[in-house]
Design brief:
Blueprint: H1 2-29, H2 31-39, H3 58-82, E1 90-100, H4 103-116, E2 120-128, E3 134-144, H5 148-156, E4 160-170, H6 172-198, H7 202-234, E5 235-244, H8 260-308
Parallel strand pairs: 1-5
Antiparallel strand pairs: 1-4, 2-3, 3-5
Amino acid sequence: MTTLRTTRARAAGFLTVITMTAVLAACSSGSDDSGADMALSEPGVSDGSGSDAGGGSAEDSATSREFGGQSGDEAAATGSTSGTATERAIISSGTVSLTSKDVAGARQDVQRIVDAQGGEVTEENTETDDDGETSYARLVVRVPSSKFDAAMQALEDVAVLRSSNRGSEDVTTQVIDTGVRVRAQEASLKRVELLLAEAKTLKDIIWIESQLTNRQAELDSLKSQQTWLKDQTSLSTITVDITAKHEPKADKKDDEPAGFLSGLEGGLDALAGTALAVATIVGALLPFAVVLLVLALPVWLLLRRRRATPQPAAPEA
């Protein structure tokens, strides 16, 4: 009897092990699909009965749904992006320094080139000389990236080229990453909005609204970065500096013919030089003359007085 009971117990245990093994195999084979269904299933938001035990809090349930769904969206977005050929995104920029006798004319030539390439002048700074003529001009232009090389070549031929620099940066990876993050964040916002519509308690509403605000701010930041990348990759920036070329003025005196007027001008110049020399000498001697006058005046007065005094007559013998 004891042996029979032992045999039955062993058979029951063996059947139990086989059953558990089959159940675990079935669960593991369908874990992917069941996980996805659970991520999109009805959220465990509290129904107002105050029971957070058993099913977990609303925050934990919403967070598990949110993060589980977000990873799926990111994987789907990454897979769709990697499956298609992506065009390279390049940020190009350049600098052109020119020298011209006519800065205003060179500036107009730059404007014509930019218009022909479908671009625009976004910034301009000009300076004028004492005569009111343009002596310096600085222009920042934006042209389509596909016409960057042609625009640079045309701008270098406007006037005398002093220097020219070009640069480029490949931001393809950054563009793709930003696009994926934007799509994932948009999907996340939609799920949080659904959770907010299903929330019934004040605690759940406050928590979900805070999550919604944070995700909206992050989405706005990502979209701003995406807009900047699109602007920089679609339009290239070129800075053009134009400086006036100064030439020495010709001496007009060499071109004037010799004659009466030339001789008269030379004589007047010589006379002016002589008068200047005499005035310089007089100015230098004037202090000494004043001192001599002060010293000699008393002596002259004394001698004059003696001459004016009559001498006594000599006695007759």
